[in-house]
Amino acid sequence: QGAEPWRDFNRSKVYMADLESALHYLLRVELATHNTLEGEELKVFKDFVTLVAKLYPGGVSVVKLMETLSDWLLSLPLQRIPYQAVLDLVDNKMRISGVFLGAELRWVGCQSSRPGLRGYPCALWTLFHVLTVQHDATPAALENTGLEAEAAPVLQVMRRYIRTFFGCEQCGRHFEQAAAAGMDRVQQMLWLWNQHNMVNYRLAGSLSDDPLFPKAPWPSPSLCASCHEEKNGVHVWNQDNVLSFLRHHYGVSNLSPKYSL
Ligand code: FAD
Fold first, then answer.
1. Deepest in the core among 2, 40, 94, 111, taking most CB within 10 A?
2. Considering the entire predicted model, what is its pTM?
3. In the prediction, which pLDDT does 1 show?
4. Under DSSP, is residue 141 helix (H, G, I), strand (E, B) or coil?
5. 24, 32 in Cβ contact below 8 A?
6. Rounded Cα–Cα distance for residues 37 and 85 (Å)
7. pLDDT at 62
8. What is the CB < 6 Å shell around ligand 1?
9. How far is the CA of 214 from the centre of ligand 1 (A)?
10. Which residue lies with its CA nearest to atom 33 of ligand 1?
11. How far is CA 83 from CA 39, 86, 123, 126, 191, in A?
């Protein structure tokens, strides 16, 4: 395969094409490694689909697909679902009602300078940051889903998804450790931001680092100057400003439809 064309993008935006590609990859590649979904796996998958159906911002066709998938999963009396049935639904729905989920991966904010870097893990982080912000803006969206009783529903669903399905097992272990240390009474947006920065610190300079996108504490001063402060000569985060920045950066009004279907 030839190299993909470089897509111009703006680091201060979030791209719907990345979120759509993450769902495409998740449904068609990551899940495909499981022949059947049953028991705990099935429950984790159902909760993930419900969460996205309720909180995904923008992109009517994606929401429709996830709602259809969610209704279908909830209506099935089966304890065990072949992966092929999920795929059929995703593909057939797509054919009947026009394009729901792109048939290809288009990384934009998550594109890399070399194949094999960035892409899906980058877009999965992005998706969950967006979902924490969306949940904060519309908490009532989860009413009557069974998820509303959880203290930090987006983080709990993410934790279970990562533990059960995420291809990188080492990542799953690290994330589970952090989650197990407690996320009951946490502010979801800030918890995820902080956890993501912990991973950035750990990975800085490692082989998985794309030289064009070196791992660094985020947001950089150029993205958010007021997020950074100095106290007694030591760098500290201004968490109130980080929170406002997260709401803005991962909020609906900062989502770009460029390159999206
Ligand atoms: P990513 O870290 O994927 O970030 C994507 C985008 O999010 C960035 O471009 C930036 O715009 C934004 N961003 C960056 N930091 C933050 C922040 N703190 N808050 C909000 N937004 C931010 N890889 C490993 O090698 N070992 C691991 O243990 C590991 N654990 C992972 C755990 C999870 C849950 C996930 C989803 C991924 C994990 N990965 C791990 C993969 C790794 O974190 C990166 O996703 C991957 O290396 C690609 O990096 P990236 O440069 O695209 O930026």
1. 111
2. 0.96
3. 44
4. helix
5. no
6. 10
7. 86
8. 110, 118, 121-122, 124-126, 129, 162, 168, 170-171, 174-175, 193, 196-197, 199-200, 203, 208, 210, 213, 218
9. 11
10. 171
11. 14, 5, 23, 25, 33
Structure tokens at 95: 């054919």
The class of domain 14-256 in CATH terms is mainly alpha
Q: Where are the domains of the chain?
A: 14-256
- Ligand 1 atom nearest residue 14's Cα: 11
Query: Which residue reads 């679902």 in tokens?
Result: 81
Q: What is the pLDDT along the chain (261 residues), one digit of tens a residue?
A: 446 789 999 999 999 999 999 999 999 999 999 999 999 999 999 999 999 999 999 777 888 889 889 999 989 888 899 999 999 988 886 665 554 666 789 999 999 999 899 999 999 999 999 999 999 999 999 999 999 999 999 999 999 999 999 999 999 999 999 999 988 778 999 999 999 999 999 999 998 899 999 999 999 999 999 999 999 999 999 999 999 999 999 999 999 999 987
Nearest atom of ligand 1 to the alpha carbon of 173: 28
Kindly give the distance from the C-alpha atom of residue 197 to the centroid of ligand 1, in angstroms, as a whole number.
8
Residue 113's CB is within 10 A of a number of other CB atoms, namely: 12
Q: For ligand 1, what atom is nearest to the CA of residue 192?
A: 19
Distances (CA, A) of 229 to 140, 216, 247: 35, 16, 19
Tell me how far the alpha carbon of residue 199 lies from the centroid of ligand 1, in angstroms.
7
